[in-house]
Amino acid sequence: MNHDQVNPSRPPIGAVGGRPSFRLHAVSFGFGRGETAVQFPVLKNISITIAAGEVLGILGPNGSGKSTLLKVLMRIVTPQRGTVELFGQPHGSFSQVEIARRVAFVPQETQQAFPFTINEMVLMGRYPHHNRTWGLGWEGDQDRAVAMQAMRELDVAHLGTRLITDVSSGERQRAVIARALAQDPDVLLLDEPTAFLDLHHQLDIARILRRFNRERGLTVILVSHDLNLASQSCDRLLLLQEGEIVTAGTPEEVMSKESLEPVYGCQVLIDQHPQSGLPRVTLPV
Amino acid sequence: MASLTPSRKTIEVTTPTASTSAFFSPAPRAEGSLAPTDQPAQGVVTLSPTKWMAASGGLGALSLVAFVVCLGFGTETIPFSQVARILAQGPLSAREAQEAPEYVILWQVRVPRVLLAFMVGGSLAAVGASLQALLRNPLADPYVIGISSGAALGAAVAVLFGVGLSVFSISVLPVCAFLGALVALLIVYRIAVSYGSFSIHTLLLGGVVLNAIFSALILFLTSLADPYKASGMYAWLMGSLTGPDFQTVFILAVYLLFGVCVLIRQAPALNLLTLGEESARSLGVEVERVKRVLFAASALVTGAVVAFSGLIGFVGLIVPHAVRLVFGADHRLLLTASGIAGGTFLMVADTAARTLLSPAEIPVGVVTALVGGPIFLYLLVQQRKRIVP
Predict the structure, then answer these.
(1) Across the interface, do B274 and A186 touch by the CB < 8 Å criterion?
(2) Which of 3.40.718.10, 1.10.3470.10, 2.60.40.1120, 3.40.50.10330 is the CATH number of B120-386?
(3) Which of A61, A62, B204, B275 is most exposed, with minimal Cβ within 10 Å?
(4) What's the pLDDT tens digit per position in A162-198?
(5) How far is A163 from chain B (nearest CA, A)?
(6) CB burial string B50-73: b at 16+ within 10 A, e below
(7) Could you tell me the pTM of the whole model?
(8) Number of inter-chain CB pairs under 8 A, A vs B
């Protein structure tokens, strides 16, 4: 299903607001090889344009292909069909390092069996900027400064010398987001960024992402189960069901009974957030 | 929709810049944002080239001392002052060779053997550390997960089909062992990834079974060989550093130095691989290429080591573990420090092996297994507490 064609009256998704960061055309992807991959696609015929500088939330029930879509954008997996463009050039024309200088990825969960310090973890974000022809990729003052500021932003600077294996999962998650910011990307992809975080740090992350978006034009693409977080912090929402785009649009357009209830298969109540006036979802008792 | 603001950074697509940070340095900041950039590097204390040099140099000095001490021990104990004097005379002093038996013992027997022990131990430790990162498993070791027995099978096949002990065969044997090690490594890797995420126990069980299969095949091959050859093969299988000459040591050094340097070159990528392949890829690592390089280099080093010294276990496990406790997890230092420390460890272990029951000799593989096995079991229990949910 080509979403651009379903709503011919609307301009192509994401065409508003500047040049596109990503443009996907008829992308289908399945895990496995050959026939299996084609028979059981996780993503079906996804076409969407994501503007540079927008905050896009990807929503959908379990197994709807949200995380897989992020992996396609990061080129962790390559779709069997369709084309992906990054800033107007084919995805395949970039080397892995060139992509990593523009796009950073925060996975759902990071497991680490080895005793790296938080400092070392965050500095790993500087890897794509290292000189790889000679030496062992030693970090310079610039790298350390960037990492330090990213750690301050994410409130993990005081944990610098602690081991990643010893801190709580929320602290680890914040360190991973700091690492992604240290990567100095144009686009930040986040898979359930707030899953392990307490309320205070959830709010922090949402604000930080918003601020980086406003000040530096960072494009933010996040997958979330938290409909309200997505509604409050995203310019645009994308609702997926079984690998297909059901709706895409502003929070007001997507967060409606008509689009949410059939996708999630349950009743929802929609009202307005008392402060922002944006739609808010609650479950009936 | 986000609107364009003057402070938006321009996105350069065609000309990537490697070093600058458009993000943090010059960009304007909002009121009250967490600020400041005046104190750049403070707080982010990690490994630097200076620390790397200091740690490697310090370890190197220690291992040099250990080298001299180990040369003194043996069936015939030679005082250190004499060891130092004979070393200073150099290996080619013909007059000394005829006069002093110590000179012959030292230059023709002990120096090549202790050098061999250093190279073998260092290489095993470096390979162990790399495999641990590659398989994301702190308990990986070329011996435990079956790579060494794969190499031994390769070497045993070569020996059985008539490769003797000429210079030619000394060069060919490591190649056969390399192929055996590579096959074993690919099988183990396949087992490790088949459960999606890397499970410690899957890998270890896979290794145990692989070891059993390869051992059975080696025993079968040995039973086909004539008794004289067979007893030689048994001694070799137990892990032994007996009787090398300088030529052997030199040929082995070429293989090992090349392989270990390749591994060290991949250290930054190894750091990222510990995060998992997806994260590594998102940070710019060409995961498939790096993996191929690591597979080849690890198999080459393991193959060469096994071809010359048989099955010496657990060095690749306990040495990186100890080094991590002291120097941290950064593979740039971990690999070099493990190399030096592993070499030192095996020099000492081998000295113990040839001194304790002197004039008889314990196979050095027995010594390392007796030291390393219990440590492995202890770590296994510890890991269970720590990682498995």
Answers:
(1) no
(2) 1.10.3470.10
(3) A62
(4) 999 889 888 999 999 999 999 999 999 999 988 888 8
(5) 10
(6) eebeebbeebeeebeebbeebbbb
(7) 0.85
(8) 205
